[in-house]
Amino acid sequence: MVPRIARLRRKRRDGPQVWTLDLELEDRHASEAPRFAPGQFNMLTVFGVGEVPISVSGDPAAPDRLVHTIRSVGAVSSALTRLAPGAAIGFRGPFGTGWPMEETVARDVVIVAGGLGLAPLRPALYRLLADRLRYGRIVLLYGARSPEDILFRSELESWRRRLDIAIEVTVDHATSAWRGRVGVVPALVARADFDPLHAIALVCGPEVMMRFAVAALRDAGVADESIYLSMERNMKCAIAFCGHCQLGTVFVCREGPVFRHDRIRGLLALKEI
């Protein structure tokens, strides 16, 4: 429960109220870099303000760079995005279960992301693209509120140029200057080219978006046991002690945030207890 001290090295604005922070542990040695699995999260503290769970959005192959993408919406997240380089931040982690990367081997991988949900999925994309020959088709379906809200634009463009990943981006609304798709991201599933009988789907975004994405994936023929979701709940302690993130009979911080859909199918629409 006692945080280590990290220093903010760099920060980059990735959208309206969205910042990506690069941290470095002050007390770490090269052999002690906190390795994380794609999909895990850390607890970050702004001293005097509070602590908040933030998913890791960096490359698993570079564990010395602790990268987190944050939307400034609450007291702690807003305080994090206002910090200047060199500021001290409390750090605990990594926590939780990650994406089932071993189960993606030799299968088509469909990634469905909504809004800031692309950030917890970015480490999985890094892993998939770093060892591309181990997988079948890779499809990224991403939706944002508007063109201005699209995250990681330069990386999306770079990945699209690879020609070994299919990327579709849509926005909820746009002006006439936008030349891309307009609509909700679950609608992209029916258009995507993948084999549903041999596909695995990784889904992250607002819960209402995930419910419709799951329905679209099931309509396409993807089995429940091949659909994984990352649940965002009000996590406080990260060790299943406080009960803030209880979802039915599970604790998101300990047993999640990544769950197989058939396990939480009946709980997805429930509010925390």
What layout of secondary structure does this protein have?
Elements: E1 4-15, E2 18-25, E3 41-46, E4 50-55, E5 66-71, H1 75-82, E6 88-95, E7 108-114, H2 118-130, E8 138-144, H3 153-162, E9 166-171, E10 181-182, E11 199-204, H4 207-220, E12 227-230, E13 246-247, E14 250-251, H5 252-255, E15 258-260, H6 261-264
Parallel strand pairs: 7-8, 7-11, 8-9, 9-10, 11-12
Antiparallel strand pairs: 1-2, 1-6, 2-5, 3-4, 3-6, 12-15, 13-14
Architecture overview:
The chain has 273 residues and is α/β, with parallel strands linked by helices. The chain has 2 domains: 4-95, Translation factors (Elongation Factor Tu (Ef-tu), domain 3), CATH 2.40.30.10; 101-230, Rossmann fold (3-Layer(aba) Sandwich). It is built from 6 helices and 15 strands. Strands 10-9-8-7-11-12-15 form a 7-stranded mixed sheet, with helices on both faces. β13 (246-247) and β14 (250-251) form a beta hairpin.
Descriptive keywords:
273 residues, Elongation Factor Tu (Ef-tu), domain 3, 2 domains, 7-stranded mixed sheet, globular
Assembly level: single chain
Number of domains: 2
Strand order in the sheet with the most strands: 10-9-8-7-11-12-15
The third-level CATH topology of the largest domain is Rossmann fold
How many strands appear in the DSSP assignment? 15
Choose one word for the global shape. Answer: globular
CATH class of the largest domain: Alpha Beta
Going by CATH, the architecture of the largest domain would be 3-Layer(aba) Sandwich
Q: State the helical fraction.
A: 10-25%
**Order of SSEs, N→C?**
EEEEEHEEHEHEEEHEEEHEH
Question: Distance N terminus to C terminus?
Answer: 23 Å
Structural class computed from helices and strand pairing = alpha/beta
Mean pLDDT: 92
- CATH homology superfamily of the largest domain: Nucleotide-binding domain of ferredoxin-NADP reductase (FNR) module
Radius of gyration over alpha carbons?
18 Å
Low-pLDDT regions: none
